[in-house]
């Protein structure tokens, strides 16, 4: 599409979008947005940060942060996407021109797309770990293995650039193939298959955890709060994760919102997505912590909880081969559904700006992301001692992987989210907001605007400054 087309599409609800370039309805968008939100953050990160921060008290703070930060920012980002009907960059161009606002706000779109690009470059490498571990679990590699052997297995994976490259490449090929087929024929079809499988596998894993002797202990750990274990760092970690788990501030929800039919309620849909995302995170905890306790392991194992602690548990328990395979298949599906959402802003922009086909855009975008991912692959082995930005205090001792992670998680995403709610809350015309949210000038709209203007920005700013300092 040309810029002229973007402006026209911003002025008309569904113009510029063919039926094949729109979600078929509310449920399709919910599954897609949930697929984006439900990723490694829910099944890999949420359990281990919950374990590190004392359990249930942390969970309560996290739920509060979802309501006060995650939900309003999601509503704002999806509303921008549907109002603009373009890629995040061209959406902000069209909206600022239409409302005679500063073109500097287009920076929201640029930063969101850049964040998606950077995150997917290293996310693909971690997604490759999931692929490798599906094979390890299915082949019985974990059976009877000692903690030293499990540690050596993971260490061997990271130390081999060739092996990491193979899995990184396979993962990116899967993502490119799905995104290249478009919204209805590719992404929606894939999500309609993968998300029910993900929910089913998660239920199976929770069901198995219920059969263990320590399910009650795992349940209490997640839902029986001990506020003495809550620290300032724990609260800020919960606030940060609530923001990041919903794929906010990286252009994904804006890109997905651009394909959302006009008759779908953004507020109701965002609430549903937030609930689904939270349920999956809690269910992952219910599936994991009973297994950890039943095998005498520690919930405070940190990032290694999934790839080092759980394989040890699967190796000891009856049916470990089957349930280990199911678990890492679950992790892989979660990674794929998130990865395709991160590819979308990049492909959408290439289609519009360069006038190329979606397949060409997916291929160009995918190969570019794959190439950048090589820096992450080498960060774990050949370039482990290479710290390119050592002259900057904030990046001292950081590899390429650490730099990409720090930039996106601590700077780009919170800053993007802050600018999104600031634009919708303070700059965007009230009439446009009302048209997109389809809310009357009543208490609900006033409450939402208050949270967007004051509460969410203040909390995001706290996390942003804390992470920087």
Gyration radius, rounded? 22 Å
Describe the global form. Answer: globular
Percentage of residues in helical conformation:
over 70%
How many angstroms separate the termini?
42 Å
Quaternary class: single chain
Tally the helices.
Answer: 19
Judged by helices, strands and strand pairing, the structural class is: mainly alpha
**How much beta, percentage-wise?**
under 5%
Q: Give unreliable regions as ranges.
A: 1-20
Describe the structure.
76% of the residues lie in helices and 0% in strands. The chain is mainly alpha-helical and 469 residues long. Helix 4 (56-84) runs antiparallel to helix 13 (266-294). It is globular. The two termini are 42 Å apart. Mean pLDDT is 88; it is low at 1-20.
Helices and strands in order:
Blueprint lengths: L2 H9 L14 H12 L2 H13 L3 H29 L3 H11 L8 H32 L8 H13 L1 H20 L2 H28 L4 H9 L8 H14 L6 H6 L8 H29 L9 H13 L3 H35 L3 H22 L20 H28 L2 H8 L5 H26 L1
Helix pairs in contact: 1-5, 2-9, 2-13, 2-15, 3-11, 3-13, 4-5, 4-10, 4-11, 4-13, 4-17, 4-18, 4-19, 5-6, 6-8, 6-15, 6-16, 6-17, 7-14, 8-9, 8-15, 8-16, 9-13, 9-15, 10-13, 11-19, 13-14, 14-15, 15-16, 17-19
């Amino acid at each position: 599409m040309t810029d002229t087309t973007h402006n026209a599409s911003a002025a008309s609800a569904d113009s510029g979008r063919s039926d094949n370039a729109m979600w078929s309805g509310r449920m399709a968008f919910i599954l897609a947005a949930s697929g984006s939100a439900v990723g490694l953050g829910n099944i890999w990160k949420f359990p281990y940060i919950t374990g590190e921060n004392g359990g249930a008290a942390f969970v309560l703070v996290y739920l509060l942060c979802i309501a006060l930060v995650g939900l309003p920012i999601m509503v704002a980002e999806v509303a921008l996407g549907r109002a603009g009907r373009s890629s995040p960059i061209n959406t902000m161009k069209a909206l600022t021109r239409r409302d005679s606002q500063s073109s500097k706000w287009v920076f929201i779109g640029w930063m969101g797309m850049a964040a998606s690009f950077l995150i997917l470059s290293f996310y693909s490498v971690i997604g490759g770990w999931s692929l490798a571990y599906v094979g390890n679990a299915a082949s019985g590699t974990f059976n009877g293995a000692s903690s030293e052997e499990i540690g050596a297995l993971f260490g061997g994976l990271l130390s081999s650039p060739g092996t990491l490259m193979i899995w990184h490449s396979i993962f990116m090929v899967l993502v490119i193939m799905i995104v290249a087929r478009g919204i209805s024929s590719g992404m929606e079809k894939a999500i309609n298959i993968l998300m029910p499988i993900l929910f089913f596998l998660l239920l199976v894993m929770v069901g198995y955890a219920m059969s263990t002797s320590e399910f009650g202990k795992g349940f209490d750990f997640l839902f029986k709060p001990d506020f003495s274990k809550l620290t300032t760092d724990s609260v800020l970690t919960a606030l940060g994760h609530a923001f990041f788990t919903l794929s906010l501030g990286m252009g994904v929800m804006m890109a997905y919102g651009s394909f959302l039919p006009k008759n779908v309620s953004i507020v109701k849909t965002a609430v549903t997505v937030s609930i689904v995302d939270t349920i999956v995170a809690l269910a992952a905890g219910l599936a994991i912590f009973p297994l950890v306790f039943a095998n005498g392991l520690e919930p405070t194992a940190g990032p290694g909880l999934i790839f080092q602690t759980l394989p040890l548990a699967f190796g000891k328990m009856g049916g470990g081969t089957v349930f280990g395979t199911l678990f890492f298949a679950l992790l892989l599906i979660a990674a794929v559904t998130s990865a395709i959402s991160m590819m979308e802003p990049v492909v959408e922009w290439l289609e519009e700006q360069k006038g190329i086909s979606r397949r060409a855009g997916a291929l160009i975008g995918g190969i570019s992301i794959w190439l950048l991912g090589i820096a992450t692959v080498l960060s774990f082995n050949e370039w482990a001692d290479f710290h390119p930005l050592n002259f900057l205090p904030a990046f001292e001792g950081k590899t390429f992987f650490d730099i990409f992670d720090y930039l996106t998680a601590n700077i780009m995403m919170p800053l993007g989210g802050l600018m999104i709610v600031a634009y919708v809350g303070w700059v965007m015309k009230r009439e446009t907001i009302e048209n997109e949210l389809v809310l009357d000038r009543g208490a609900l709209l006033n409450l939402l605007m208050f949270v967007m203007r004051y509460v969410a920005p203040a909390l995001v700013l706290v996390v942003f400054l804390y992470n920087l300092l």
